[in-house]
Design a protein that fits this description.
The chain has two helices and four strands. The strands form two sheets. It has a two-stranded antiparallel ribbon with strand order 1-2. A two-stranded antiparallel ribbon has the order 3-4. The longest helix is centred in the N-terminal third of the chain and has 9 residues, at 6-14. By secondary structure, it is an alpha+beta fold. The chain has one domain: Pnp Oxidase, Chain A (Roll), CATH 2.30.110. Strand 3 (43-55) and strand 4 (58-70) form a beta hairpin.
Length: 91
Amino acid sequence: MPSTATALAELFGGKTGDELDKFASCDWREGPAEVPILCECRNWFVGSVLERLPLGDHLGFLLDPVEVQHEVPQAEFTFHRARRIEPGHEA
C-alpha cells in the first residue's frame, strides 16, 4: 500500500467487514482470477493459496505468486504508521 493511502489503510484496518462492505467504500477493479485490485495501489500481486496457517487470532496465507504488477516505485505505508489505526473490532 502506498504511503499516501491513509484513508484506504484506515478503511481496511479500522473498519470491520462484519458491519461494512469495504470494497463498496473504495475504488477497485477486477484483477486476475477475479481478485479485487485496489485502484490506489498501483503495485500489487495475486497469488494462489498454498497453505493456511493459524497465527493466534489471525490466519496467515502462504501464496504462490501468479501475476505481479510493479508500475511505479512508491514509498510504502509502514507498519509503524499502520499500528496507530484503531482496529475495527477486538481480536
